[in-house]
Amino acid sequence: MDRIQRITEMEKACDDVTAAIRALSDAAARYEKLQGSYRKLSAYYGSARWRGDLEADEKGLLPSELKRGVLSEDGLYDLMTENRELAVRLLRLAARMVENG
User: Fold this and answer.
1) Which is deepest, 38, 50, 63, 101, by most CB within 10 Å?
2) How many angstroms separate the Cα of 94 from the Cα of each of 1, 17, 22, 25, 77?
3) Which of 74, 66, 72, 79 is nearest to 50 (CA)?
């Protein structure tokens, strides 16, 4: 590989990594801001209020046009599972980043 090719390749790598770091940083900031909402969802899921809301839905007491995915047991459970898996993935990534510099 000649010098021009090497510098061109390194510039592309630098640009790609810079863009990825910025995108991840922006996503992490948004994710951090939403942790309060996540905690509310986590507390709501399976609570007496959630069960009452689900029961009202099953009895047809809620407007048909009301979006109510939060009443799906699988939906919130899957979201919480995905959140945990993401946390583990981020921890593993962070450990590798620290180890490898």
Assistant:
1) 50
2) 32, 15, 16, 13, 26
3) 72
Distance CA 59, CA 51 (A): 12
Read out DSSP for 23-82? HHHHHHHHHHHTHHHHHHHHHHTTSHHHHHHHHHHHTT-S-TT---GGG-HHHHHHHHHH
Residues contacting residue 21 through CB under 8 Å, at least 6 positions apart: none
Strand, helix or coil for residue 2: coil
| pTM, entire model | 0.79
Burial category of 99 from C-beta neighbours within 10 Å (exposed 0-12, middle 13-18, buried 19 and up): exposed
pLDDT along the chain (101 residues), means of 10: 95 98 97 96 95 96 96 92 96 94 77
